[in-house]
Amino acid sequence: MIEVDVHQQLREFLREQGEPHWSHHLTIARLVARTLQSQRSALIQVGGVAMYQGRHRLSYLVPLLLLPKSVILVAEEAVQHRLLRVEIPRLCESMRISKPIRTGDRWPSPEFQGVLLTTPTDWLADHCHQSGRFPAAIPTVLDGAEALEHLTRQQMTVSLIPQDWEALMLTYPQQAEAIRDHRVRLTKALFQHPPNPYGCALIDQPEREILFQLGQVLQSWNLHLSPNNWQSFWQLLARNDYLFWAEIDREWGQFTLNTAPIDLSPVLSGLWSRQPLVLLGSGLDLEVNASLYRKQIGLGDLTCLKFAPDRQQEVIQLYLPEQMPMPNTPEFQTALLAQIRQLLSTSSGAGLTVLIVEDLPLRGQIGAILAAEYGSRVQVETLSVEGNGVLVTGWQFWQQSQQRLPFPHLLAIATLPLPSPEDPRVAGRVAYHKRLRQDWFRLYLLPQALSTLERAIAPVRGTSAMVAILDPRVVHRSYGEQVLSVLSPYVRINYLSPHLFAANEYLVQDL
User: Fold this and answer.
1) Which of 7, 146, 255, 423 has a CB 3.0–4.6 Å from the CB of 281, allowing a cystine?
2) Mean pLDDT calculated for residue range 319-343
3) Smallest Cα–Cα separation from 397: which of 479, 443, 452, 326?
């Protein structure tokens, strides 16, 4: 059986290579082999250092290479480069495997019998736009399932950029003046929205009416002659399950119109029945059966496993002060600065400090204040930071850059990564859940925050670093227990002392 062969060869390889111990290698390898062979899909959640450092990849590479049939591996380009240059050559040499390996955005040929590596963007684009570049029924492994929702929404977004208005006028030269008039009216309506740090605004009913009216003007000239983006946008204008927003450039007086589906389950549900599939990711769901995640992406019944961080090797020191004011109060900024100063004073010179402050104005203020006190050590969202520097950043920059930065000895988090309702796109999704009388906080905001938090702290697991969360909602809100479960395993500390940053051994707090 393929499971037995995979188990034996991977175990022998691990022994020969002296790979870092990870107790789940063989379990995952057997499950992937069984899935690809039996045609029953599986969802595997891998937490902590294993996913961050890519240890889990050996577990699916061995069955992919040993399976005597064609397979597809969906992974980001950076992961593909690592696999092609390091992991796959080592495995093929050790196991004497000569299975063909190809990369590309489509299936090479009907005769190809090997492993095709493709990106999630290309794989999803083929499904969303029904291009037919990947045949059905080919066993597939998707590494990086946490990005699936974001990438799918990107594929399904229809945008109208400033140049699209020029293309529309070229298509209907007789109506150029009318098109220009509607564009001016739309510009005026959009620029009446108050400015915000996110540079965007929801497209409300008045703006939709202007676009509807433009469509009616052009209807008599055959609307089907319009460029594809315009046709798609007009067809979606009446949909209540789509989000409509405009990105506004006030300096240049321009805007881009966008629309994307809010609920992605209808988009993705047809994808899962096309082939046996193994999805691997981190921070997908608190529960083993990932019921909420599966509902969001239209994934039916399948085998589900979840591997938590190692309770002995991946413990974090967690500093969680209880006497902080709430983030929405005027006193929060003063208290936050006091805590940050105390943390920096205690950990002076120990290594890189990362301060995650999502609020844009607050981030700038804290960066300026700390720079005045600590000089050039303090940098805001840059990779050029000293080894003992202080990096002030938002969540997105930290997630995108953590692989290229030194391990921080202190990761201080100002507030939980709950999506801000001040962002019009977030407000639009919240309004959608409210219309359906759904619990928008526990269906949307909280899962997003927990997923972001779990991946953000992965780099500091297994080190002597400290994680400081300065948001008192962890202590005083009912969902705080769910936040703590994401942080587990941890040792809670209630005081600050220099020796904490030199500690290398921990006691595990059992939640």
Assistant:
1) 146
2) 93
3) 452
At residue 480's C-alpha, the angle toward residues 475 and 482, to 5°, is 155
Residue 498: what pLDDT? 60
Q: Is the pLDDT of residue 499 over 70?
A: no
**Residue closest to 198 by CA, chosen among 55, 358, 332, 37:** 358
Which residue ranges make up each domain of the chain?
2-155+265-307, 156-261, 316-502
Average pLDDT, the chain: 91
Q: Phi-psi region for residue 130, left (φ > 0), alpha (ψ -120 to 50) or beta? A: left
pLDDT at 347: 76
User: Is the bond preceding 489 in cis, omega lying within 30 degrees of 0?
Assistant: yes
Measured distance CA(430)–CA(441) in Å, rounded: 8
In angstroms, rounded to a whole number, what is the distance separating the alpha carbons of residues 247 and 228?
A: 20
Q: Distance between CA atoms of 338 and 346, rounded to whole angstroms?
A: 12
Please report the DSSP string for 98-151 in residue order: ---EEE-SS---TT--SEEEE-HHHHHHHHHTT---S-TT--EEEE-GGGHHHH
pLDDT of residue 23: 80
CB atoms within 10 A of CB 376: 10
Q: What is the pTM of this model?
A: 0.90
Handedness of CA 275, 134, 92, 21 (dihedral sign): negative
| pLDDT per position as a tens digit, 419-446 | 999 999 999 999 999 999 999 999 999 9
Under CATH, to which class is 316-502 assigned?
A: alpha beta
- Summarised one tens digit per residue, pLDDT across range 201-232 is 999 999 999 999 998 888 877 777 889 999 99
Tokens of 409: 């000895």
* Higher-scoring residue by pLDDT: 83, 500: 83
| Residues 6+ positions from 280 with CB-CB distance below 8 Å | 44, 45, 46, 51, 56, 60, 141, 142, 143, 144, 145
Q: What is the homologous superfamily of the domain 2-155+265-307 according to CATH?
A: P-loop containing nucleotide triphosphate hydrolases (3.40.50.300)
> Residue for token digits 């067809």?
235
**Amino acid letter, 473:** R
